[in-house]
Amino acid sequence: MKWLLCLMALCAFLAPAAPAADISGNWKATVDTPNGPVERTFVFKVDGHTLTGESNSSMFGKSTIEDGKVDGDNVSFTLTVNVQGNQGKVKYTGKVVDADTIKFTVDVEAIGQTLEMTAKRVS
């Protein structure tokens, strides 16, 4: 019986993490901010559980995805944006809803605000 418990514990330890959702490609989102709507595009590249790529918005310009991770349907990354000459971090935490939709919570550290954003895949 003891060996069975050890075997079960070993199997749980060696079980691989959930496969990463395939979000590679182009995405587009709009978020309502206190200064009006902001459109942002994303180019995601997934390699295993690592997310890289870039993002662009008309208000904040181009940013490189930093600390990107995909674990199952969970997605997270950080962008450094430039606002009137000041750089700030914006953290994205999201959940893949379906093959063409990701719902993000966006934490804008510089202003202490959290926003909700839905990204849609662009063909």
DSSP helix fraction: 10-25%
CATH class: Mainly Beta
Report the C-alpha radius of gyration, rounded: 18 Å
Q: Would you tell me the structural class of the helices and strands? A: mainly beta
Principal-axis shape: globular
Going by CATH, the architecture would be Beta Barrel
Mind telling me the CATH superfamily name? Quinohemoprotein amine dehydrogenase alpha subunit, domain 2
Commentary on this structure:
The longest helix is centred in the N-terminal third of the chain and has 13 residues, at 2-14. The chain has one helix at residues 2-14; strands spanning 25-33, 36-47, 50-57, 61-64, 66-71, 74-83, 86-98, 101-108, 113-122. With 123 residues, it is mainly beta. Strand 8 (101-108) and strand 9 (113-122) form a beta hairpin. The chain has a single domain, classed as Beta Barrel (Lipocalin), CATH 2.40.128.120. Helix content is 11%, strand content 65%.
Outline:
The chain is mainly beta and 123 residues long. 11% of the residues lie in helices and 65% in strands. It has a single domain, classed as Beta Barrel (Lipocalin).
Keywords, please?
11% helix; Lipocalin; globular; 8-stranded antiparallel β-barrel; disordered N terminus
In terms of topology, how is this protein built?
Elements: H1 2-14, E1 25-33, E2 36-47, E3 50-57, E4 61-64, E5 66-71, E6 74-83, E7 86-98, E8 101-108, E9 113-122
Antiparallel strand pairs: 1-2, 1-9, 2-3, 3-4, 3-5, 5-6, 6-7, 7-8, 8-9
